[in-house]
Design brief:
single chain, mainly beta, 6 domains, 6-stranded antiparallel β-sheet, 2 helices
């Protein structure tokens, strides 16, 4: 596992690492005899194990792996002030697992080790731990309490001593301020652990108790080792005892194992130390520096794994935990900086630090008391026959294993899961499960979401899917909360989408409006259940989609005439399958072109102009043809709105017929009211002029100009002194001799159909010369 992250492990894996398996009862049902006790203790040859006068029920042999026991072999001894067999019995109530032995009152139980004289063995070592039902951290140290004792007969020295604040052999730097070694009396020992306590995690795990909850004894100390010096030349007796104080109802137990010899005791032997100056053996505290997060002292900073405190004890690898010579076991004490100032975080003067009760494991879980304080750990190497050494040493900040100030804790969370049908349906219930939050929150909050939007009111572990969630993916956000921790929110993988429901229609859609070119068609959508929130449309011509015709209305094209039109309507609503319905077809007819009766303005007189007006003809852009009639006589037809009245119309009434044409429409005609009868026109005239020389034999010419309108026909009458000359009716005339001395004039008459004829006479010439 990573040396920087401590994770929660499965129970099976943790039991392998921590050496803790949950056996329900000790190995022996009946009180063991001395031989069984010696075998459980792995007593060396010659050591005689006895029970003295103690009640046989005070002894039991156990093989449950618990609290680093057995420390050797496969079993160990339980020595109790009550019934020892009850320590791991699953049938005993949690409050008082044992009772008085013999008569009522305090009990004392003793295990004796008779050691033969030896020339080489100068120290007897025995592993032990104390368990108690008495309250810990409750009474003043001097108050009487249950006691575990290891003494040599004839020697008043107590060899079962809890080291207190540290395993120190160093001096100076205010080490005298740290609590020293104290006897194993409940009220004097500050380091206790409860079976099943998640804040005392197994190595490499989080919230997996180092001590499994297989004992109804409330508190246990960590495994310790008593070293009893054995003077040479004589047989000696070592007494291991557990004693009640004041009452016999709350019992205590001594867990005892691995009796052995060493050439000398640690406080008198040559020392051992880490590989000084080798970076690989420098330790480091790993883990998140937050309340409730596991901190672990990693003995070898340079490796990936976090080496276990007893790695060298159960491993043949020489330097398994970075200490040498091999077979060095590590013990720990954690400290809290006395103030929240970071100034003293790297101070090696222990006067600036306070030992933390119960913090004597390789891992420690900070509490709210630690917030804003730096934490530090001291580690001590323990090996039979060697002086115990503690690091970091005085003044060596390079070896000072310290954290930055502890802050709010953080969770390591994984995605919650949803028990999800495929696909989930409206009306079904989904349930959220929290996979893992480390450490375990005090509480969780939930919020369910549909397509990323919160579902109002859905804040429990379950959600009942409604129609509003159909078609949407469902997720849940789970937020872990714990005092002293930053909230952490994890979001599940999506479930769904939720299956869509079906819409129904009770009446089909229908096309509304006049189905002809020029009109606009609409849609009656019909009745739907439920009512869609939106519709989409596709108009079709002879069942083929019309490109771009996707609105609720449609104006038929001219090319649609003679074909059938339908419309397909799709209803959509959140949570429902989009549903389409098609109308019945309608045939498209030609359009009707609207327009008012044309109006003719102007005077009905030949030569004048009439104007026709055709207003409000639809649609715009239609072609209009104007046809003028004089009675039944067609005068003019075309795009012109005006008519200059021709002479042929004289005496007749004028009408105007307007004809509208456009593709897709039927041809439409409108006829105006007739005008008054057309009156004859008046010609425009001017006085004719005679050109030529007034002399006998010469020719004169009649000159006409300025007459109108175009087409006027002229006739001529030449005159001598006002008298008409017979046969002189052309535009030119040769002067006869009879006209000598007389004056000549010419009368011009203009004629045009529909106009009144007009005659004009020229001015006289000079007298005709001879």
């Amino acid at each position: 596992m990573s040396r920087r992250v401590v994770t929660r492990m499965s129970a099976a894996a943790v039991l392998v690492l921590s050496g803790c398996v949950a056996l329900a009862a000790p190995a022996t049902a009946d009180p063991p005899d001395a031989t069984a006790l010696a075998g459980a203790l792995d007593a060396p040859a010659g050591v005689v194990v006895g029970t003295g006068s103690s009640d046989p029920l005070a002894y039991a042999v156990a093989d449950a792996q618990f609290n680093d026991f057995p420390s050797s072999g496969s079993s160990y001894v339980l020595l109790s002030t009550g019934k020892a067999a009850d320590v791991f019995s699953s049938t005993v109530p949690d409050d008082q697992p044992s009772t008085d032995l013999g008569t009522a009152g305090p009990d004392t139980s003793t295990l004796t080790l008779t050691v033969p004289a030896s020339d080489t063995a100068r120290c007897l070592l025995v592993d032990f731990a104390m368990g108690t039902e008495e309250r810990v951290h409750t009474y003043v140290p001097t108050a009487p309490s249950d006691r575990l004792s290891v003494k040599r007969a004839g020697d008043t020295t107590e060899y079962a001593m809890n080291t207190g604040g540290a395993y120190f052999s160093q001096v100076g730097q205010n080490y005298d301020k740290v609590p020293g070694a104290v006897p194993y009396e409940v009220n004097r020992v500050d380091y206790w652990h409860q079976p099943g306590d998640e804040n005392d995690p197994a190595h490499g795990a989080v919230e997996v108790p180092r001590l499994p909850a297989i004992s109804s004894i409330d508190n246990f100390s960590s495994r310790d080792t008593a070293e009893v010096p054995i003077p040479a030349g004589d047989e000696h007796t070592v007494n291991i005892s557990i004693a009640d104080a004041n009452n016999g109802l709350l019992d205590s137990v001594a867990v005892v194992d691995h009796v052995r010899f060493a050439p000398s005791c640690s406080y008198s032997a040559a020392g051992m130390s880490p590989a000084t100056g080798v970076a690989a053996v420098r330790a480091v505290i790993v883990g998140h520096r937050g309340v409730g997060n596991v901190l672990t002292l990693d003995p070898v900073r340079a490796t990936v794994d976090i080496e276990k405190y007893d790695n060298a004890v159960h491993d043949t690898h020489v330097d398994g935990n970075g200490w040498f010579p091999g077979q060095v076991e590590l013990r720990f004490r954690w400290y809290r900086a006395a103030t929240t100032s970071t100034t003293n975080c790297y101070s090696t003067a222990l006067v600036n630090w306070s030992a933390i009760p119960d913090a004597d494991r390789q891992s420690y879980v900070p509490t709210n008391i630690d917030k804003n304080h730096c934490l530090m750990a001291l580690v001590t190497g323990v090996k039979d026959g060697y002086r115990r050494e503690t690091f970091p040493t005085t003044g060596s900040t390079d070896w000072w294993y310290v954290t930055l100030p502890i802050q709010d804790g953080t969770f390591d969370g994984q995605q919650p899961t949803i028990a999800c049908d495929i696909p989930p349906a409206v009306g079904s219930e989904l349930t959220a499960s929290v996979v893992d939050f480390v450490p375990r929150p005090d509480s969780y909050t939930y919020q369910w979401y549909a397509n990323g939007s919160a579902i109002s009111g859905q804040t429990g572990t379950k959600v009942l899917l409604s129609a509003a969630e159909a078609g949407k993916a469902i997720t849940v956000k789970v937020t872990g909360k714990r005092s002293g921790f930053d909230d952490r929110t994890e979001t599940s993988a999506p479930c769904g989408p939720v299956a869509l429901m079906e819409m129904t229609t009770t009446t089909a859609p229908a096309i509304t409006g006049t189905p002809s070119y020029g009109q606009t068609l609409g849609v009656d959508t019909g009745l739907w259940e439920p009512t869609p929130s939106s519709f989409t449309y596709q108009w079709r011509l002879d069942n083929a989609p019309i490109v771009g015709a996707t609105k609720s209305t449609y104006a038929p094209k001219s090319t649609d005439v003679g074909h059938e039109v339908t419309v397909a309507i799709s209803g959509a609503k959140s949570g429902y399958v989009p549903t389409s319905r098609v109308s019945d077809p309608v045939g498209i007819d030609v359009g009707t072109m609207p327009g008012t009766t044309p109006l003719v303005t102007g005077t009905a007189k030949v030569g004048l102009v009439l104007t026709g007006t055709a207003s409000d003809w639809q649609p715009a852009g239609s072609t209009l043809t104007y046809t003028w009639y004089a009675g039944d006589l067609q005068l003019k037809s075309g795009a012109s709105k005006t008519l200059t009245i021709p002479g042929t119309a004289a005496g007749r009434k004028i009408t105007l017929v307007v004809t509208g044409t456009r593709a897709g429409y039927g041809t439409t005609q409108r006829t105006s009211a007739p005008t008054a009868t057309v009156a004859a026109g008046k010609l425009v005239t001017a006085t004719p002029r005679i050109s030529g020389t007034a002399k006998v034999g010469r020719t004169l010419y009649a000159r006409v100009s300025g007459w109108g309108p175009y087409g006027v026909k002229y006739s001529y009458r030449w005159r001598i002194n006002g008298a008409a000359v017979g046969g002189a009716t052309k535009s030119s005339w040769r002067i006869p001799r009879s006209a000598k001395g007389k004056r000549i004039t010419v009368t011009v008459t203009g004629r045009l159909t529909g106009y009144v004829s007009v005659s004009r006479t020229s001015s006289r010439t000079s007298r005709v010369a001879g």
